[in-house]
Fold:
Amino acid sequence: MMNAANENQDVELAIFQIGDMLCGLDTRHVQEINHNFEITPVHRAPDYVQGVINLRGEIVTVIDLHQKFSILPGEVQEDTQVVVVRYEEECIALLVDNIYDVVNAHQFDISTPPSNVDGISGSFISCIYRMEKDLVVVLDLEELLKK
Amino acid sequence: MVTIEDNEIFNDFIEESVDHLDGIEDDLLSIEEAEENFDEEIVNKVFRAVHTIKGGAGYLGLKNVEALAHHSENVMGKIRARELFPSPDIISTLLDAMDTLSTLIHRHESSNEIDISSNLTALNAIFLEDAPPENDNSDENNSEENLSPPAQASSESFATVSTDEEPASEDNPVLASSSMNDLLRKVEQSELDALFKQGSFVYILQYNLLKHSEAKEKYHAKIMEELKETGDILAANIDGDASAEMIEKKGNLLIVVFATILENELMGDFFDIAPDQIQQITPEDLEQAALTPAAVPQQNQSVETSPVSRPSIPPATAPVKKMEQTNKTLLKDSPVKPEQKPDNLRVNVKLLDNLMTLAGELVLTRNQLIQATASRKVKGIDNISQRLNLVTSELQEAIMSTRMQPVGNVFHKFKRIVRDLSKNIGKKINLIIEGEEVELDKTIIESIGDPLTHLVRNAVDHGIEMPEERIAAEKQETGTLRITAYHEGGQVMIAIEDDGAGINIDRVKEKVLTMGLRESSALDELSDKEVANLIFLPGMSTAKEITDISGRGVGMDVVNTNISKVGGTVDIDTIPGKGSIITIKLPLTLAIIPSLIVTVQKERYAIPQVNMVELVRIPAAKVKERIEKINSAIVMRLRGELLPLIKLTDVLGITDRYYTSDDTGQQFLDRRTLTEDRRQAQADKIAPQMDKEETPSSGQEKRASTADRRTSPMSAYNVLVVSVGDYHYGLIVDQVLDSEEIVVKPVGTHLRDCECYAGASVQGDGKVALILDIIGISNVMNLRTVSKSVREQALQRAESKMMKDTQSFLLACNAPEEQIAIPLDLISRIESCKIKEIKITGGRKNIQYRGGPLPLFSIDEVADVGAPHTDSPTCYIIVFSISGKEVGIIVSEIIDIINGTYVIDEMTHKQPGIMGSTIINDEITLLVDLYGVVDTIMPEWTKALKSKVIEDSPANILVVEDSPFFLNQVVSFLSEIGYKPLTATDGVKGLEVLNREKIDIVLTDIEMPNMNGLEMARKIRADERFRNLPIIAVTSLAGDAAEKEGLDAGINDYLVKLDREKIIACVRKYLV
Structure:
């Protein structure tokens, strides 16, 4: 799915920030980018589940990517930013720190993850997109969200 | 080329045909039942339906459908003309034909390639001969003998004898097993995992098609259909590579990967397949399979082989080839996953019109609202919001009703299942279906089909005995299976009742012990019913002994799981030798449920009201008294029972951060340090909060504050008493907000494993409230064990007070320090009212109530007790009825309802309006005599009750009662109206009096020492002299079961103690 490098096409990436890591996600999976939700906590849920929100009547699980990547959360923001993705017929909101832009990533700028990136968080990385200044970690949604 | 128009025509045709076919099955069965007296109209109906299908099929070019319909029509025509008697065999053939027809119609694209010759042959045989030969019966279920190949009578014109062959390959076991693995690999691992999780079993079934076709006329399509009825076909393949000669010798192998909830032991029974042909696949096997190298590639080729016409095949082998061809056809289009049926719903046009009107109303209301808000008119908004409320609820109701479907939709297929299954195993069963019109939500209807089928099959297979066994057990040869649906208490009940052998309780116990699911001491405590219900425990299902000896217990845990998934419960009652009743309780609908909204730590949760029993608020001052600790568990005394308590904060692992002020209900942030992080809280959450007092890790400050909280005015307890099946527990929450109808929404996959939640719902303000799963919470908190220890204590208590019955009282008080008790059974209800609403007119207190005055009395008007204090603006009115009038007694405060055995002192406090006194909760409590209060103030009201009996025929009444207090009460009621009752203090003495004196009526208590009331009643009835002596039970043992037992013992009437009016009325009734 995220093997954008294998396809002979450009990929549209939504770029956002988790901790101090820049992440990208193929916009084909992104339903919307939204903010200012009141998150209802769900106790006894897995650690990475921040809670649930009401997205126009649908109950959407909010996943905290900090937990997934074992990054300490930054300052608690008043205004929560979420990227809502569709995964297996279900809406899931990813809690992120900052949302930047949607960019057209040329396939030449995309490379496989370097070999020293491994471990659990390594498996979430589909590939690396080299922006002019920064490196963007393109996420593998399936790995990230499968139970 | 298929145009959209074509598709529409096809869809219409399919829909119509499916409707027809559904009806035909029932009709055929009713024709069979009526035998020669069948209703001609029904035959006509079936005839017309088949004819319609034939017409449509002809137009659409579905040749096979047309042919099959035509042949069926021929047979039906003969039955209609009464040239043919509709014997069970003929009906079976027709039913089979209808099944095939249904298959053909569902697969209309490929229907012309499906082989239907066996159906045609059978139908033709019936048509051509008036009495069809025995062996032409093509019902796979009831024909045990070999069937002569249909080719001999086959109408060649319809048989598409084309077959495809490949060079012969060895038909050996290696091939079979490798193709199995190959097949298995076709199935998605995730799909299998999901199935295992749901409690399904996965099997690989090997059918020898040739053998089956010869022996049981079970050919491929039928096998597939049958399998689909009970589970999902994940993949199918056949070894089609064998040559004609090989087929003749060894038959053709059909291999199916099949998922079902049926146990291995049952597979053989249901599918007519030898145990060695069934291979169960476990998750471990799958891992193994994944490791073995890829299979022989030629397995899949059979599908794409080119058809070669072989007209020269000898007739004997023809059916085999046809079958093989069928297999391949099916393979091409039989989907690996279950077919997706179009999800259509039929809605009554009237209902739709109603919906339109309501939608119109809604639009109007919105317009009004917009106008009102735009013009900032606050005045009209009240009206509009009320109207909006009305329209919305009506709209909601109307939409809900479109989802409601009669439960008969599920029931009707049982006729066929029971018929086929009972024929197959040679049992005689009379199936009675009642309450088909009871409606349930579509989703529920859909999800109860499988569990119900399982239960019905179980009842037929294991419940009802073979005819000879039944005769030996002096039962009717024909067993009765009754399926009933009915409404009860806002829920739908489905009962499956059989008069079979019942469940062997001892075997269940044995199995439970060997499985180590319960300890033997624990088992001894359980009643037979409770033991029977243990078969729902997971693990019991694999109990082979149970399946062999007493049936049931097969996959019952899966049935249980599936029913509870839709919010239902299953309960089993069994009497060994007499039969079993399985009762399923289901909610009417899932989508919208009335719930109670509560908060803990400012978070809102919803609790479905079905689970709620009552709300108890323990004021802070009483917390110490009412709430106690047993080991680490907190319990509360509630009417003499110990109720296990859990704090919702502990369940959810929330750290207490806020406390609730008792006076204002406001919540404040606790000053305690909030050092504990969530993970720590989670680690602690199993241990109840109170334990933390002893935890050294908690800071000194915290310890002090927690200890404080127990006694401080800040910590009143709101306890929600909830029920989980047969036991109750209390959930402590911070605040109880409101009761709301909430729309249930599912939560995401990541949260499905949280047992505590049943879903989520969006509140009026757009926030999300999670719905608590009461059963899940009790599992998470391991409440069963707690409840067991509580139960043991209850048992001990019950033993200690054996031979004494208990009384329920409502505790209230007027003046402080003066507790009064009122017999609960006499109270109709309790109202709260404002003191200023009480008016004094004509010197009498009364209050406007439901359009009329309700006379009020105060106990201090008659007895020397404190008056209700007037400093609180509200008071309570205890409403009861006397001489047919409703009357209220004013009290200032309601304290509790208690239940227990009390020694009543009739001397010290006896006065008008007070019966006596007792000590309840260490306080002297006055027992109020409601009758006495009214009698003193309004003697004329009770006149009717006091009219004396005629002096010259004083009837002799015997009162048998062990408690002196109650004895005196009854005697005084009776003396007042002129009787002179005789008394006895237990059953033995009662019988002595009865033998000595002439007695006209007996009033007796039930629970008494030496001989209880029931036993005495039986003894009295056994005596010829007293056959018609009226016996009235005066007791506090209420309840239908107790009453029934009493009636069985010969008691004429059941009355509540201290209900003077009823007792007198009843005595009069029997003495007149």
Observations:
- Chain B touches chain A through 29 residues (CB under 8 Å).
